[in-house]
Design brief:
The complex is a heterotrimer of chains A (about 170), B (about 100) and C (about 650). Chain A has a domain at about 10-90 and about 135-170: NADH-ubiquinone/plastoquinone oxidoreductase chain 6, subunit NuoJ (Four Helix Bundle (Hemerythrin (Met), subunit A)), CATH 1.20.120.1200. Helix content of chain A is about 70%, strand content about 0%. Chain A contains 6 helices and no strands. In chain A, helix 1 (about 5-30) runs antiparallel to helix 2 and helix 2 (about 35-55) packs antiparallel against helix 3. Chain B is mainly alpha-helical. Chain C has 24 helices and 2 strands. Chain C has helices at about 1-25, 30-60, 95-115, 125-140, 145-165, 170-200, 210-215, 220-235, 245, 255-260, 265-275, 275-280, 285-305, 310-330, 335-360, 380-390, 400-415, 415-440, 455-470, 485, 500-520, 530-545, 550-620, 625-645; strands at about 70-80, 85-90. Chain C has a two-stranded antiparallel sheet. The longest helix of chain C has about 70 residues, at about 550-620. Classes of the chains: A mainly alpha (about 170), B mainly alpha (about 100), C mainly alpha (about 650). At the A-B interface, helix 1, helix 2, helix 3, helix 4 and helix 5 of A face helix 1, helix 2 and helix 3 of B.
Amino acid sequence: MLETIGPLESAAKAAFYVVAAGTLAGAWAAVSARNLFRAALGLAVALFGVAILYLFLEAEFLAVVQILVYVGAILTLLVFGVMLTARIADPSVPRWNGQAWGGLAVAAVLGLGLAHLLFHAPWLAPVDAAPAALPELGKTLLSTYLLPFEVLSLLLLGALVGAVFIARKDPE
Amino acid sequence: MIIPLSHMLVVSAGLFALGIFGALTRRNAIGILMAIELILNSANLNLIAFGRARGDVGGETQVVALIVIGIAAAGAVVGLALVLAIFRHRQTISADEIKLLKG
Amino acid sequence: MPLLLIPGLPLISFCILIFFGRRLGKFAPVVSLAALLGSFLLSLQQWKWLAIDLHQSFVAGVDGRVAEVFEHYVWTWLTLGDHPLRMGFMADPLSVVMCLVVTGIGWLIMLYSTGYMKGDPRYSRFFAYLSLFFCAMLTLVLADNFLLLYIGWEGVGLCSYLLISFWFEKPAAANAGKKAFLTTRVGDLGLFGAILLIAKITGDLSFADLGGKAALLGGWAPVVAVLIFWGAAGKSAQFPLHVWLPDAMEGPTPVSALIHAATMVAAGVYLVARTLPLFLANAQALAVVAAVGAFTSLFAATIACTQTDLKRILAYSTLSQLGLMMLGLGTGNSFAGMFHLVTHAWFKALLFLGAGSVIHAVHHQEITRMGGLWRKMPVTAGTFLLASVAMAGIPPFSGYWSKEGLLTAISSSLPPVYLAAAMLVSLLTAFYITRAVVLTFFGAPREESHAHESPAVMTVPLMVLAIGAAGIGLLGSPWLGHGMQHFMGAEAGHHEAPHWLESASVLIASAGIALALVRYGLGWQLLPEGLRVSLRPLYRLVAGKYFVDELYELALLRPVRWISQKLFGFDAGVVDGAVNGAGEAGLRLSRVKRWVDEHWVDGAVNGTAWSAGQAGGMLRLLQTGLVQNYLLVASAGALAIFFILR
């Protein structure tokens, strides 16, 4: 979307780094906040950040879907779950289990190793292609990928029925 | 594309690592679900970034990402239902208090 | 599409009857009769189209047909690599004539069966099998390629087996079915080999351009033709594969009439007629057909003169007539054989149904114990007599015309010895059938019986068949302008017969009848005492059916059985001995082992189990039951693998 040179380009770059930092910060909050509700808020920031990153990648439709489905639906569901279960804000409950340090080590090695690889990998030169337009996307989704699309709708139906079945009160 | 591919991928890797960390260490089951959503998001971001860099014929990568989002939603729904069911039975959703798999 | 329905309707009827037959009860025949009537009408429609085509060519003054237009329905069955396997049904004159014979006579016989089979515990099953038979037979007849024909061919073989051994409680019927199935299978092998050769060399299995295929086959052409004839001989019971047909008479009589006289056994003749261009391409193959046909014909006719079982007489007569048809085809003129096939189907079906009616009434099949039955069953006697006259070849009944055609063809294109053989067969035919008629229906009753005329459902088909048996030959007679020859595309009057032939054949037939009347009607001994005594061994040879069955028993079955017994002995003595010895030795050894086991091995085993239990107890500590714990270990492991492998 930003095909200019000079100041605008650097402004866009700066914007990207700000958004990226915000996304990662939100993600950190989501996995580390003591209060689960705050964790949910952090997750919202992270998901919203990812949506903006999609805009940087010129995937506008996906960005909209990201906000609608994740922020709008999944996050709301998670917040409901948080509120329905007790002790969300109890400071006496430890945030992490006994393997916090082990987990941290694995995650750190993973993240740093990946970053190292990414910076040093011999990437192929980017192809300068126009991003897929929305009509094109729609055609692909409803022609080539029609079967996965329909299967997905069945999966969602199954998940819905299954969730209702699991979560309802046992008839006694 | 003005943002270098590797920078976008590093953000994705960071999200992934944080998600793994959360999934490994969170006590609260809902927290684990949140971490898993982060992992899925990082995968999607990765996919779109590569698609943008290497040409995305007909928006195929976006279509795959859409399907992943749909599956993630289904996963979240079932996961939450499980959490609620466990909570009702055992009055806790702390993952380290659930040891049904203990041999 | 209507073509598909001709074999399709009986198939539908079969499916209905096999699944719901029991529930339909005595209404089961209605289904099969309706289906077959449909097939008959559709065949009639095909005939009408062909006749219109013929008429147009006649009006246009063209010799032959305006266009070879007939319904031809083709589809690709499956594709093997680059070779599409095509299936198709076609209704050319040959097929249509066969269709009309099969469905027309078949319908009458089915109607007759409703009366004949009444009270049978497997009533509906019988009609299901009949429907399946019609499906297979019509597929065979309408097929436009060897493969589909072979499918139908095997189908009719299966139905023949099922129907011969329909009363499988009788060991004789069960064995006869087995014998028929195995013997015809020997023949099928020949046809199958021919099909494989054709497919391999020409790559095309359709019946189109058989003359060109014969050229392509080159040196293989006689082999293929003889293999096809070998298959046809199995189905049409030609020597030496004829042994199954007389035994097949163990089946219900309508089955004998339908399958083993009128239709299925004619399939071999039809096959040779259909593939005649392959035979025409080489004289040797044609000579084989003629020779085998003539031999079988004469051979079976002599046997028929000595039998006393009514159905067996008719069975050998069928063999003889089939031989005549083959002889006719051996002249290279397909019409002569096919025409006799059509007329024979009518009068032989009638003879069998008449015999069935008699058997139904007196409950046995020995003509020496019958006699004088015409008073008690006039309709049966009248129709049987008519059919006999037709078969003997007395003008103007149907057998005369077709036999006349055969003799003309033989005299014009084969050596005189064949004509002599055919004449002799003619004489014997007239003789044995008159003998059967006289002994069965005339003279004084030789045994007390409570015979009575059969019900209308059985006599009406007899009467309709009698009309056919009397009149069907006229279609090919000069009186109706050789209509059938025109229809089948044969050239009428092409063969100039010697003028004496006509009168000679009538004379010979009359002589045969007269001889039989004198011998069995008046009871005169025809031969002087001395000659008869000296001929007795010959009579025994003929009456024993030339001991072909015994020969097979001696030459084939007994050696096989002997080898089997020797092999069994080897098994019992040597192999079993070795096995038992090994077992004994094993037993001794195991006693020793048992001691070792109890004192040494058990201890080791128990020790192992104990240490495994201890180790498990320690490892158990690792299994925390915490999913996240597992996940941590798994991720760490994945990372470790990554670093090791990079």
